[in-house]
Amino acid sequence: MSSYLTFRILKGLFVVVLISVLTFIIMRLMPGDPVYMLLGEGQIPITDAQIEAIRAKWGLDRPLPEQYFLWAGNLLRGDFGESLIRAGVPVRKMIFEAIPITALLNFYALAVAIVVAIPFGIAAAVRRNSWIDYASNVVSSLGIATPNFWLALMLIVLFALYVPRWFGDLPLIGRIPPFGLRSWQGWILPVIVIATEEMAVLMRITRGAVLELLPQDFVRTARSKGLAERRVLYRHVVSNAMLPVVTVIGFRIAFILSGTIIVENVFALPGIGRLFVDSVLRLDYQVVQSLVVVFAVLVVVINLLTDLVYALVDPRIRIS
Amino acid sequence: MSDNKLARLMARRFSRRQFLRYSAATGVGVYLGAGTMSAWAQGVQGGTLTWLGHQEVAGLGPNDIGADVQAAVIFNILNPLVHVDHMAQTVPVLARSWQLGEDNLSYTFQLHEGVRFHDGSELTAEDVKYTFETYSQPGNTMAGRFNGMRDVTVVDRYTARVNMDTVNAEFLRRACEVPIVPKAYHESVGVDGFRTAPIGTGAFRIGEWIPAQSTELIAFPDHFRGAPQVDRIVLEVVPEPSVRYIALLTGDADASVWPIAVEDALELENDPDFLVVRTNWNSPRFIPLNNELPQLSDRRVRQAMMFALDRQRILDDLESGIGVVATSHLAPHNPFYNANVPLYPFDPERARSVLDGAGWVEGSDGIRSKDGLRLSFTCTTISGDQTRRPMAELSQLFLRAVGVEMQLAEAPVASILEGLRAGTLEASLFNWTMGSIVDPSPTSVLKSNGGDNFMRYNSAEMDALIDQGLSLVDPAARQPIYDRTQELFAEDMPALVLHYRQDLGVYSRRMVGVPEEQMMSTPVWFDGYKYSRG
Lengths: 320, 534
What we know:
The complex is a heterodimer. Chain A is mostly helical. Chain A contains 13 helices and no strands. In chain A, helix 5 (91-126) runs antiparallel to helix 6 (131-145), helix 7 (148-167) packs across helix 8 and helix 12 (272-281) packs antiparallel against helix 13 (285-313). Chain A starts with a helix and ends in a 7-residue tail after the last helix. In chain B, strand 2 (82-84) and strand 3 (90-92) form a beta hairpin. The two termini of chain B are 37 Å apart. The chains are: A mainly alpha, B alpha+beta. At the A-B interface, helix 2, helix 3, helix 7 and helix 12 of A face helix 1, helix 5, helix 6, helix 12 and helix 13 of B.
């Protein structure tokens, strides 16, 4: 067990280092110069010498390996460096400010999705071809097919604009703002949008997994030894069906920080996805590189955890 | 992004039916922007104005005024010596008055006395000297504004004299717009420290600042022009234009610093609850061509392409007709505009005959060539640019009709600018200022050694005219020079100028005091202290 862990951790470290080098190279290969991002469009006369001075100030004139080792060395000491565009602001601060928003958003959405999708998925499988099965099918197909972007805008138009005009404030909820997180109501629409997609996926997986297990021998055996149907379902079917569901949930968590770019953009939420896209567009090297390393570490850790959870959920899997 | 379009369409259809009824029924008060104060109910004093931007406010120092959204915030915290206002007039701010030296090599500024920074210290000529000498250092993005400056002399506590090495006609309206920082505080925090925690003489001081989310300005009652009307201004970052539009309708915001979609703004133009003001752009939509490319180096080829383009149709079809077709490098509202420069009419026959005359013969595939060289080049548009890519596509058809092949490619904006500067790209389509209403000189773009010479344009006459124009300060003396630069541009056509667009600035009537006539919209945001909630 411990040698397995050591091996996995070393492998993970190797992956992270490789990714950091690749990101560094790709960012530099991207043509363009962050200096121009600051200058605006032709409003300010600037000479080549002045541009060079700005590059020198940012250390962009040094040889690439030197730039990499400087950055990577600092990273090992926990120093992510400073943003080029937001000069004077530590990258770590930018990331730590953005992470809670994205993490909470996904946590709520995943919680909503699990609470809704798993019971409905099970019900749809057990009562196959009933109205509940059809309904869950339609809902999950729509959930997968509807673009986040469109759904988000429609919900904003409906709940921030129409509903207050027609009905005034909603009972209990009050007023839903069109953007931002200044009030708790601001969370409602973005959570619904993200949850819709996750719900759709989870519902399908749950239904499929349960359907696959129902005709199995061990289920028939459980029934034939006189167990109550309820107990058969929960003890034998559902607990086994959770394996693929856990995989999918783990997969979603790994992408939790990078998967909500569109939603963050539409609802104007200053989360990690927007930070990443803004930084790529403005060639803010330090921020992009640091974020990618953070994502990489996250994916490696979550993958490891998912494998460990497998062992807990499925007694057939033993780690050695 | 067709989703975007669809959503906007639906939002629009709704507004057409519902909006008048809604606004009549609810007036201003259905909801005040999240977190706003309740002072609005009393009418004019106090309350919060909410403005919308499209991208984060990354910094709040003098180096950050290049981005409009940042300038809107910064100029309410910091003040410059003089400003170019919304009617393009030079108006004094911290300077009470100024005199130009006889040789045009010095500017003497008399400052208002008793002007307080937010930390209570008084503005003096030392602060002016410190600001100018600090931000003109290489390494600052503002350094280019100070070209030609030698140093600043403190004449007395309230008088500063700027000494120039060379005459720079732009200086007053460029350098003197760089906001003044308090020397003692700035020295203790440095340039980078200052841009995250600025202290100025402005009518507002910085409150809560979350760059990607919102920037809060809090009234500074001791402001030298009088206390502001409202208690707070909050700039919220909302990247999606249709959400900004909805937020204006719901009352969550009072105005949008960055434009909303044209179709949405047009909807509001006839709405009594909104003020929509049209302002002209200084930068034309244009196709910069690499003039060194063999197939494009003959100006007759470039002239022929101008005849081939139906530019009015591009404007009408792709910009809802909001704008005016370009003649040259200055926009028609520019005080230096030369109305005698003829407009290239849409005349494909003439385009063909010009190309025939230049020796370009149509081949079997319909594309012309000369001495084995095909009249073909690639126009690289900005990746994901939904607005200007269609203009390139339409232009491609027009050019194809006269035997010119313009192929299309895409690349990120930074690599396009760099590729054009380096001469590795052949053409692109974007907009860029080649002389603005602030100053008509097209220095950085049309001068052969200019930092933004995307066309690799090299004209000895243009270089001489630009130098001459910048050496003169009197507008009347400068006029004939810029008359000629525009003629010369139209003759040489280093870039295919399409049209100057207009912006539709949208302000809710909840924000009182916005000028109804504007030549430039950006300075409107600098006067936050004048506006109240209605």
